[in-house]
Write a structure and sequence with these properties.
pyridoxal phosphate binding; Aspartate Aminotransferase, domain 2; membrane; transmembrane helix; 14 helices; 423 residues; seven-stranded mixed beta sheet; transferase; alpha/beta; PyrdxlP-dep_Trfase_major; single chain; 17 strands; Aspartate Aminotransferase, domain 1; 2 domains
């Protein structure tokens, strides 16, 4: 077979495939921040498995734990039975991560992906509060199954449901209308007997909207939402599937605001090694499930538990949160000095190691041209946001500084080339 032969995919794989259309090569190897294709070409990875590979490809510390478990014939599948990997993960997560941060959460093992964690959170919130409605933000992405999709606002994604999506009220995100006090707006909807809106069981949000276009929600706004939930007996759910696990510089993205959500959803990098894994964290008094009331065949997959514990150990032992905070100012300065200066219509924003370059002020699909040019130049980045007009920068969290700088330079070069062709 010739190298980079994509015929099998194009002939037999469903047309639903997406990322491969932006990165049309066959990858064979990945290590740290570098992916290599069948031709031996190397690419710097600023895509990071859409947030599933915070600790890089084939992290050696985590890999050693996974390989050792496999070689010792460890239990691979156990539904929700008691196993050593589950006990060790629970004890480590609770004693070394959750409780030292001042939180008190029980852990629910759900299906293997982020949308499973969100579906469990929604079901539990509605069960506990005995209300159907949920408030979500415009610009939100929470998953592609029906409950999560009802929260998600991307028009194309919603059309794919094929059925009406009910029981969600979408609230303008605070960046959309700076003159609108969106917390006061939510309170008015709740208290006005002519609002026509049912009081919600929960308010769900991402503290930084990633797929919405890299929008960091203000600390004070998050604190006011927490207070609103307390005042009106509403649960606060934080979706940390993509922006958790230290991506923003804190293991839990909401730590920067000093708030405690009632329910937290985790997936992607909580799996440690790109393993399928998802969790729903909940305050103990909310744990009103009956045995088996919410389940799934692959809840708490054993190899994921091994990798997840190792990932948490790596995060703490290698001071990953500090590493992110150290790199963030470098990225911000580079974007301001080397990318925003390319054209006055370009804006940048972000937090930690999650940044966006916004081409929304341009006519045409400039962001698409940029990610294709970047790929030609040896960099993998994706695009998000309204009209997919924002290029998302998401490197591994301990990316070497020279690799980080090289990747950013490739991005700047690619933008100059694309914008230059427009003039």
């Amino acid at each position: 077979m010739s190298t980079n032969n994509t015929k099998a995919f194009e002939t037999y794989e469903s047309e639903v495939r997406s990322y491969c259309r932006n990165f049309p090569t066959v990858f064979v190897k990945a290590k740290g921040s570098i992916q290599t294709d069948e031709n031996g070409k190397e690419y710097i990875d600023f895509f990071c498995g859409s947030g599933a590979l915070n600790y890089g490809h084939n992290n050696p510390y985590i890999k050693e734990k996974v390989v050792e478990y496999l070689q010792n014939d460890g239990v691979m599948h156990a539904l929700d039975m008691y196993t050593k990997p589950k006990r060790e993960f629970i004890e480590y997560f609770e004693n070394e991560v959750i409780r030292p941060r001042g939180f008190d959460y029980k852990i629910q093992f759900v299906g293997p992906t982020g949308t499973n964690a969100v579906e469990a959170a929604l079901k539990l919130a509605r069960k506990v509060k005995k209300r159907n409605n949920v408030f979500a933000l415009m610009g939100a992405f929470h998953g592609m199954t029906l409950g999560s999709l009802a929260l998600t606002t991307n028009a194309d994604s919603r059309k794919g449901a094929g059925v009406p999506l009910y029981n969600v009220t979408h609230i303008p995100a605070p960046y959309m209308f700076p003159e609108l006090d969106t917390v006061a707006y939510m309170e008015r909807l709740i208290t006005d007997d002519h609002s026509g809106v049912e009081k919600p069981a929960a308010i769900i949000l991402e503290t930084t909207q990633a797929d919405g276009g890299i929008y960091v929600l203000p600390d004070e706004w998050l604190r006011r939402v927490r207070a609103l939930c307390d005042k009106y007996d509403i649960l606060m759910i934080v979706d940390d599937v993509q922006v958790g696990a230290s991506r923003t510089g804190w293991f839990f993205s909401f730590e920067r605001a000093g708030i405690t959500p009632d329910i937290v959803t985790l997936s992607k990098s909580i799996g440690g090694y790109g393993m399928p894994f998802a969790l729903t964290l909940l305050r103990p008094e909310l744990d009103q499930w009956k045995p088996g009331e919410h389940n799934g065949t692959f809840r708490g997959y054993q190899l994921s538990l091994v990798a997840a514990k190792a990932g948490l150990e790596f995060m703490l032992n290698e001071h990953v949160e500090d590493a992110v905070r150290e790199r963030a100012p470098f990225v911000e300065k580079f974007l301001k000095e080397n990318i925003e200066t390319i054209d006055s219509r370009i804006t940048t924003r972000g937090i930690g190691l999650l940044w966006g370059v916004d081409f929304g002020a341009f006519e045409g699909d400039v962001a698409k041209a940029v990610i294709h040019k970047a790929f030609e130049n040896g960099l993998i980045v994706e695009r998000v946001g309204r009209r997919d007009s924002v290029v998302k920068i998401m490197p591994e969290l301990k990316v070497p500084m020279d690799t980080l700088e090289k990747g950013l330079n490739i991005l700047a070069k690619s933008i100059r080339e694309v914008v230059g062709e427009l003039k």
